[in-house]
Amino acid sequence: MARSKIPDPLNRRHLVVKELTPAQALAIADAYLEEDRRVEAIDFLKKAEADEKLGELRKLAMSEGDVFLLRAVAEARRKEVPKEDWERVAEAAAARGLERYAEEARRQAGLGEE
């Protein structure tokens, strides 16, 4: 079995707070992405200032109805998720049978209504 390139949990915690070059942070993020560990990659994409890759994860979250990934990307980018985007996530989640994700996205879409 091939050894994982991602850091163990303790090393990950140290790397998140450590000063890294953008290239180092991007290499770690790519290792997480290779293992389909998207949310864990976000901290390192943020450190690498890899806004394009964060944008790709955002699109993926919206198409897959992944509420948690969308929220994590929005926090990393320091951008609010528009109501329309939450509605699209709800639709995508419902289409995939992810009712809890769809419910959470609908709840988030309704926060702006009064």
Structure description:
With 114 residues, the chain is an all-alpha fold. It folds into 2 domains: 7-49, no CATH class; 50-114, no CATH class. It has 7 helices and no strands. α2 packs antiparallel against α3 (38-47) and α6 (83-95) packs antiparallel against α7 (99-110). It starts with 8 loop residues before the first helix and ends with a helix. The mean pLDDT is 92.
Secondary-structure element sequence?
HHHHHHH
Show unreliable segments.
Answer: none
Number of helices: 7
- What is the percent of helical residues? over 70%
- Total number of distinct structural domains: 2
Structural class: mainly alpha
Overall pLDDT: 92
- The number of strands is 0
Shape: elongated
Observed structural traits:
single chain; 114 residues; mainly alpha; 2 domains; 7 helices
Could you give a quick summary of the protein structure above?
By secondary structure, the protein is mainly alpha-helical. The protein has helices at 9-17, 22-34, 38-47, 51-64, 67-77, 83-95, 99-110. Helix content is 72%, strand content 0%.
Q: How is the secondary structure organized here?
A:
Blueprint: H1 9-17, H2 22-34, H3 38-47, H4 51-64, H5 67-77, H6 83-95, H7 99-110
Helix pairs in contact: 2-3, 3-4, 3-5, 4-5, 4-6, 6-7
